[in-house]
Amino acid sequence: MHVIDGRPVEGTGPEHTLIAPATGEALGTYRLAGLTEVDAAVASARAAFPDWKRTIPGDRAALMLALADALEARADELARVESQQTGKSLRLAQDFDVPGAIDNARFFAGAARQLTGTAAGTYWPGSTSMVRREPLGVVGSIAPWNYPLQMAAWKVFPAVAAGNTIVLKSSELTPGTSRILAEAAIAAGFPPGVLNVIAGDGPTAGQALVAHPDVVMSSFTGSTRVGRRVMEAAARKGSRIHLELGGKAPLVVFDDADVEAAARGAVAGSLINGGQDCTAATRAIVHRSLFDAFSERVVTLMEGVTVGDPADLATDMGSLISTAHRDRVAGFVTRAQASGATVRCGGRTPADAPAGSAHYSPTLVTGVGTDAEIWREEVFGPVLVAVPFDTDDEAIELANDTPYGLAASAWTTTTNRALRAAADIEAGCVWINEHIPIVSEMPHGGYKASGFGKDMSQYSFDEYTQIKHVLIDETDGPRRDWQDIVFTTPDDAALPERTRQ
Ligand code: NAD
Question: Mind telling me which residue stretches traverse the membrane in this protein (predicted)?
Fold first, then answer.
């Protein structure tokens, strides 16, 4: 289940049973990565770094493109494994997760060859200064279970394209597609040790990877709570971090919006991946004049969503990641209802869900105050909560009244409202009349408690590099005029004249 130094390796941690959350059945067992595997993977990455760093970008790009092809050749298997281990619909895995990850590999193959930064120039008399963009060393990356392949891709590709070597720790619940990624890298010709993949739990393997003295950067995607622990551990050794954390995205529907478009956007945006998406629409903020029409249309659309067997291509939404997580999601809805909220649809396990499965129905909740737990906390399930507003200022205030700031959308037919929402909403991404699309060329990452550092795009590539100032003296002779500030000697007059100054 682990790939270290280009070879499959058994773990030395406790045995873990992989469960298919859509059925509750066991898929198999494996031993988690323990401290031995963390150490071995970091040692392998460290040994591989000097040579990998010296490869030219064109050669790294060629390997990345070969890796993309190797992934494409296993696309069906990737989609099947992703769907089985997460419970997400096969349709989502094959049409979104797998092509998204492959496109990301091809994007970073190109990004590796694109030089950014200042050009060489003279900033000190008689010299040329230039900037070298260089990799950092061994990167330790930690990925969550919601999009195991895409999160691995977003971490691995910019890091290795930039010349770093990496140890990726996938979630113990979803190790399958990260392992296939590592196998595809070997098949594509990546040198052993450049990409090591382990699967283990957070407190053991994750914590050890962050704390490891040879890991110079920790790149983490997961909850804000764990992200802060990662930050603390990295602070103790003073190393870099890159944090993609939780979200509670608002979806603001102004009074001039196309209600049908907004309702469809809200349903797709809140139910994608069973709502286990950090950018999912979770808080609908709807002008009072449209509130009833919007809510009724969302209920109709949600009730038409097919929840069931993820392997059936007719299924819209599979199960959540586990029964424990489903119960956590259900708990938010039950407590909201007990406090007077109205559950307009869903709020239950579908009647025909297999025993032991982790399904939950698409849910719309209204009638909550903005201090309600379900309005403020990340539910991470197929649950949309809607509240009305009266003025544009109030809508923006509500959108920003959250510790999170990952993504948001605004629905309007007026340009000035769209631009105002784009400027005033505190989030790393603001969609106008859309919710969800993320592309390899554009940055993804949070404001506020949603983290810092960008995934995707050239900005992400830059995160995995450091820049070095190189100054080259162009003159002849041993003496430099500025040194007179520090010292002068009677010998100065005897030294030859400099040819340039
Ligand atoms: P999580 O924080 O529980 O776990 C994420 C990863 O961290 C897992 O691999 C886990 O094993 C590891 N981990 C746990 N404790 C650790 C520790 N002490 N030290 C090091 N690693 C540790 O998150 P999750 O439940 O797997 O994923 C859901 C969360 O991820 C949600 O909050 C979601 O918003 C967030 N997320 C964010 C983005 C983004 O781009 N901002 C994308 C996907 C998911």
Answer: none
